Amino acid sequence: MLTCQVGFGQQGTAELESAMILAAKDNDYKGASAYAFEIANRYWGAKQQEKALDFLDKCISYSRKGNEQNILFLAYQQQGLIYRSGKNFSKASDAYEKSVKAARMLPNSNYLKESLINAAECYSLLKKPKKALPFLEEALSLSIRENDEKTQKTSYLYLVQSYKALGNSLKAKEHQSLYNKLIEIELSEVEKMQQVAQLEQEIYNADAEKNTVNEQ
Fold it and tell me: Are 53 and 39 in contact (CB under 8 A)?
């Protein structure tokens, strides 16, 4: 997960808010957005959802002004998390969609895959499988290209779920089959590793036994 690389030490929330205001006045939008994000996280940790969302809005505003895509991505992801935890899946999906746009501007595609899956999950929870599909297909395409098996499996399972909900049993079976093949390959690799480990142990035991005989 992308993190905001700013240290705040033992500064209190009131101090951070003052620093945020000063940074914004100086057009230091990177600093202002980082302060706002930290304050939002503190309020979220204290279970003060509305205040957390208020400072995330400030963070988003500053990030946009300063073109700070890293913190903008973080803010939308955090918004999505907060709304999702409150079962407001409509607002959560909107936040995650915006995080997808921010993630496209970042060099690490892991953030994009994370956002795509989050958005798809929320649309699934909203019982809108058709809206989930493009996010899942893109996440799957990226994960195949990058050999990211974990995201591939997640994408396949959600695609199976979405196509079943849409009544497309053919597509559901197709993706279930692809998921099963991925699992079979994983199991085969595990078996190979176990066989190699067993062979190495047998060789080690044979060498140890030979050495013992020679010593005698």
Answer: no
pTM over 0.70: yes
**Angle formed by the axes of helices 109-125 and 129-145, to 10°?**
160
The per-residue pLDDT of the chain, averaged, comes to 88
Phi, psi of 128 (to 5 degrees): -125, 65
Burial bucket for residue 192 (CB in 10 Å: 0-12, 13-18, 19+): exposed
Domains of the chain: 1-106 (1.25.40.10)
The CB-side HSE value for 146 (13 A sphere, CA atoms) comes to 15
Q: Are 76 and 96 in contact (CB under 8 A)?
A: yes
Cβ atoms of residues 62 and 29 within 8 Å: yes
Whether 88 contacts 17, CB under 8 Å: no
Q: In angstroms, rounded to a whole number, what is the distance separating the alpha carbons of residues 132 and 121?
A: 7
CB-CB neighbours of 58 under 10 Å: 21
* Structural contact between residues 56 and 37, judged by C-beta atoms closer than 8 angstroms: yes
Burial of 209 (0-12, 13-18, 19+ CB in 10 A): exposed
Half-sphere exposure of 47 (CA within 13 A, CB side): 0
Q: What is the mean pLDDT of residues 66-82?
A: 96
Q: What is the CA radius of gyration of the chain?
A: 24
